[in-house]
Amino acid sequence: MRNTTQSDQLFARAKELLPGGVNSPVRAFKSVGGDPFFAKRAYGAMIEDVDGNAYIDYVGSWGPMIAGHAHPQVLQAVSETIADGLSFGTPNPLEVTMAEEITRLVPSCEVVRMVNSGTEATLSAIRLARGATGRSKIVKFSGCYHGHGDSFLVKAGSGVLTLGLPNSPGVPAALSELTLTLDYNDFDQAQELFDEYGDDIAAVIIEPVVGNANCILPKPGYHQHLRDLCTKHDALLIFDEVMTGFRVSLGGAQELFGITPDLSTFGKIIGGGMPVGAYGGRRDLMKQIAPAGPIYQAGTLSGNPVAMAAGLATLKLIQRPGFHSELLDKTNYLCDGLEQAAKDANIAFHTTRVPAMFGLYFREGPVESFADALQSDAARYGRFFHVMLDQGVFLAPSAFEAAFMSIEHSKDLLDQTIAAARAAFASLQSA
Ligand code: PMP
């Protein structure tokens, strides 16, 4: 068994001082049971805890660490930048370079605004959509998570789903009534909703691959269907690419699926591990943001030079030719290996994948909807999670979060993960 003495002591202290002992809910291991470990350091594909246990990491700080933890080029960019000061409150050159990079890699983003988290990005994009259209209603999908903004905590995924709180207390009913929800991948339902409310809808916001209800892929043509409905009714289509951006393809899910959204939101990878978000899109929309236009949005630390340096260094690493196809190969290799191991142990198990992002389900496939995802045996996932953790593999501590691959996950580490899964499946069989 792992020694967890230091982590346990820290968690006892933390529980007195932080809600649930953590600063973000899923970290607390509530859905898988047990207590979290406290990280001391991370390098490449590995994360090490304060008791000296090392784990192959498939959480990757929930997405940013696609190039691996503590990449020397990212660390160097950060240390060179901090030597000149941490924050200026006046424009700095790296903000311009970052905007050039994002708009070049994601052509639908003609103009971009940097913020400090994914939540800020989605909140700001919705305000812009409402301001620009003069409409109040927004549409989201059950199981999708767009951060903790009031309007999004309606049938939400991620931690709120993990904890069974998809509609949070504290959100005024008058506001949540403006959020209409749809079932992901249901073509007719979207059509019917637009038939009824189309001209009141400011925007449809969607995770183009749902990573906050495990990992659900869009059916062929689904995003185009939404694009057509939005265009027809002058509603805006917002791709929330906080998770998928720069991950599933260099140009994000919009490049992978060939869709042009009106607005996009980003986070995670563009900060390289520092707190960053961004939203961007059509010039005629973005020019309505203050000070160019009347829709207000601001941030003391937005465009922070250290965060820009970490993000730019990461964006440079992922532009190496073949980077994303290598990630897809790794993702397929692992998922195929896990499926084979489950089959050999006669365990009902299914994986879904896109490059560098995958879902693990304790049920047979296919999984095409939020309802399908919910049918995964979460208690079984919890047991699997712990046997894997004890063997040095850190998966998401929730059955409803996607897993992430980094470029540093070597074949050897993937083989170790599959071997650990064989043991874990065998233990489930006997449980
Ligand atoms: N949108 C999506 C798709 C996300 O996955 C997340 C976070 N996991 C967010 C928004 C919110 O980002 P943040 O946690 O940085 O506020």
Automatic annotation (TrEMBL):
Q: Name one Pfam family in it.
A: Aminotran_3
MF (Gene Ontology): glutamate-1-semialdehyde 2,1-aminomutase activity
Keywords of this protein's UniProt record, alphabetized? Answer: Cytoplasm, Isomerase, Porphyrin biosynthesis, Pyridoxal phosphate
Tell me the pathway: Porphyrin-containing compound metabolism; protoporphyrin-IX biosynthesis; 5-aminolevulinate from L-glutamyl-tRNA(Glu): step 2/2
Q: Reaction(s) catalyzed by this protein?
A: (S)-4-amino-5-oxopentanoate = 5-aminolevulinate
Q: Does the keyword Plastid apply?
A: no
Q: PTM N6-(pyridoxal phosphate)lysine: list the residues.
A: K268
| Keyword Isomerase in record | yes
EC number from the UniProt entry: 5.4.3.8
Instruction: Indicate where this protein is primarily found.
Output: cytoplasm
Q: Which cofactor does it need?
A: pyridoxal 5'-phosphate
* Database matches in NCBIfam families: hemL, PRK00062.1
Record-stated family: Belongs to the class-III pyridoxal-phosphate-dependent aminotransferase family. HemL subfamily.
| SUBUNIT field | Homodimer.
Task: Show the InterPro entries listed in the entry.
Answer: 4pyrrol_synth_GluAld_NH2Trfase, Aminotrans_3, Aminotrans_3_PPA_site, PyrdxlP-dep_Trfase, PyrdxlP-dep_Trfase_major, PyrdxlP-dep_Trfase_small
Broad enzyme group: isomerase
Protein's name in the database: Glutamate-1-semialdehyde 2,1-aminomutase
- Give its localization: Cytoplasm
| UniProt superkingdom | Bacteria
